[in-house]
Write a structure and sequence with these properties.
The chain has 394 residues and is mainly α. The chain has twelve helices and four strands, in the order E-H-H-H-H-H-H-E-E-H-H-H-H-H-H-E. InterPro entries: GPCR_Rhodpsn (IPR000276), GPCR_Rhodpsn_7TM (IPR017452).
Length: 394
């Protein structure tokens, strides 16, 4: 397997395409559109920074505040890690290409190995978020609707095992999308720098991660991407409906404070899941349309509109991975207090004063409680006009 990136020495007149205008470059999907440039230069860095700050803040809050070390927050911490890594891989790669080359270019990805690794980890974290959201909804459904059964089954080892299972399933699903980006191909170009949109800094070689031959890799990609989503969508809708119906019922045998605490957590998680599905729904529906389009001879989504649609979908998906901590603080007073406590100026001074073996034992005992009351590097000729779209991935 060739891990090296070839140099311009491999480009000849026979395999180099001269790009005379920006319009011609657009016909090969070689350039970022004006809308894409705006989002990559302004919107996506803001989303990345907001997502990293928020999710790191949540993880620090769970680490610093003993009352936050619950089973639910253990799952949410894994979700925060998945969201952060997803943002770093997806937005980071797009900003890197824009800053270094000014156009989409997979050249620095170490060839085929880079294509596989990026695709695998990007979709591992994406699927992990989907599975964790669904699993959290199921756990909250059990806690609210079947509290006795849930209390008997809960334990630290069970939480860890189920979380590990979530990550394993996410990795297995990610393996299924790899054939859609398994090959690494390089194309040689020369640019007409008299066109104001074609710059001298544009590279002479552009690398692209592409699927193996045939339609089946991209069709399997769409199926793998959409089927788990819609299963999770309908499953979560069922859990949310049961939870909300149960919250409207009063249980005289349970203290009002316990009911209020339980309800706040449940409402927070329902809101979090609702935001997740609202922000990712457009991308998944677009994938269904593209799956159907792969069997047809005409476009269902016109090429001139595709880049803008794909970019809007990406922004929504990226936003989902950034806003979860905001949802927690807006919908739950306990989480707001915990955030303030974790980042209070006197936190470390008080922590040193209070830290003792007894406190450490209590903190350990608190852990995970839910609520005690309740291709090769060879050069290839430039692509034809009908080169497959690559903008339909995250």
């Amino acid at each position: 397997m060739d891990l090296a990136v070839s140099t311009k020495e491999g480009c000849t007149d026979n395999n180099t395409r001269h790009i005379s205008s920006a319009e011609e470059a657009d016909s090969y999907y070689l350039l970022f559109s004006n809308f894409e440039e705006m989002t990559i230069a302004i919107v996506q860095p803001v989303i990345l920074a907001f997502g990293l700050i928020g999710n790191i803040g949540f993880l620090l809050t769970v680490a610093r505040v003993p009352s936050m070390r619950t089973a639910t927050n253990f799952y949410l911490s894994n979700l925060a890690v998945a969201d952060m890594m997803f943002l770093l891989i997806t937005i980071g790669s797009r900003i890197r290409a824009y800053v270094m080359y000014g156009l989409p270019n997979d050249m620095p990805l170490m060839g085929r190995v880079g294509c596989v690794l990026q695709m695998f980890w990007k979709y591992t974290f994406n699927f992990a978020g989907l599975i964790l959201i669904t699993f959290i909804s199921f756990e909250r459904h059990m806690a609210v609707c079947h509290p006795l059964r849930h209390r008997v089954k809960r334990s630290r080892s069970r939480s860890v095992k189920l979380t590990v299972a979530c990550w394993i399933v996410a990795m297995l699903l990610a393996l299924l999308v790899i054939p859609s980006k398994l090959n690494f191909k390089q194309y040689c170009f020369s640019w007409n720098t008299e066109d104001p949109r074609l710059h001298e800094k544009f590279p002479g070689i552009i690398g692209q991660c592409q699927g193996v031959e045939g339609l089946w890799p991209i069709q399997m990609f769409y199926v793998t991407q959409t089927v788990p989503f819609f299963f999770a969508l309908f499953g979560n809708a069922y859990f949310y409906t049961r939870i909300l119906l149960k919250l409207h019922q009063r249980d005289r045998h349970v203290r009002q404070r316990t009911i209020r605490t339980r309800n706040q957590v449940a409402v927070m998680l329902v809101a979090n899941g609702t935001v997740f599905f609202l922000t990712t729904n457009s991308f998944e529906v677009t994938s269904v349309i593209l799956f159907v389009q792969s069997f047809l001879t005409e476009y269902l989504i016109k090429p001139e509109h595709s880049n803008t649609l794909f970019e809007i979908n990406r922004i929504l998906v990226y936003t989902n991975s950034a806003v979860n901590p905001l949802v927690y603080t807006l919908t739950n007073t306990s989480y707001r207090r915990a955030f303030r406590r974790a980042f209070a100026l006197g936190y470390w001074r008080n922590r040193r004063q209070k830290h003792s073996p007894t406190v450490t034992t209590l903190m350990t005992h608190d852990m995970y409680q839910i609520n005690r009351h309740f291709p090769s590097g060879n050069q290839t000729p430039a692509p034809a006009v009908n080169m497959p779209l690559s903008g339909d991935t995250i």
